[in-house]
Amino acid sequence: MKLVVLVALALAAPHTSYGAPADLASVKDVIPILRDDRFHEEDGRFNIEIETGNGIRLSQGGSPDGPNGAVYQAGEYSYTAPDGTPVHVKFVANENGYQPESDLLPIAPEFPHPIPQFVLDQIAKAALEDAAASEEHDD
């Protein structure tokens, strides 16, 4: 039994060794930061503008206007993908979560046919039954 456990442990041991990270002196392409403007107000509002030498841009602002001081944010960023495709994303982050907008984001296909009314009625009935069952458990 001890032999089986020993063999299992030997097989489970990682077989690769992890090397130390590359020395910064060996990094060939250092990308300059062309712009890095950050403004933070005492009331929690902020604006950030960043631009790098390889075309990455970020513009973002926010304020603690949400419930319990939650920070709402809006902004945009852009860069060039490794295949050369320009990427531009606008976003809002609020009580509904992170909501990006971009031509490159996938769009779900439209439903192939209308949903029959009896199916919609059944879905509504199930929702009412779930709500009633939930109220019974809360009592």
UniProtKB/TrEMBL annotation:
GO CC terms of this entry: chitin-based extracellular matrix
Bilayer-crossing regions: none
Protein name: Uncharacterized protein
Any Pfam family the entry gives: Chitin_bind_4
Source species, domain of life: Eukaryota
Keywords, alphabetical: Cuticle, Signal
Keyword Signal in annotation: yes
Gene Ontology MF term list: structural constituent of chitin-based larval cuticle
Entries under PROSITE patterns matching the protein: CHIT_BIND_RR_1, CHIT_BIND_RR_2
Organism: Petrolisthes cinctipes (Flat porcelain crab)
N-terminal signal peptide: 1-19
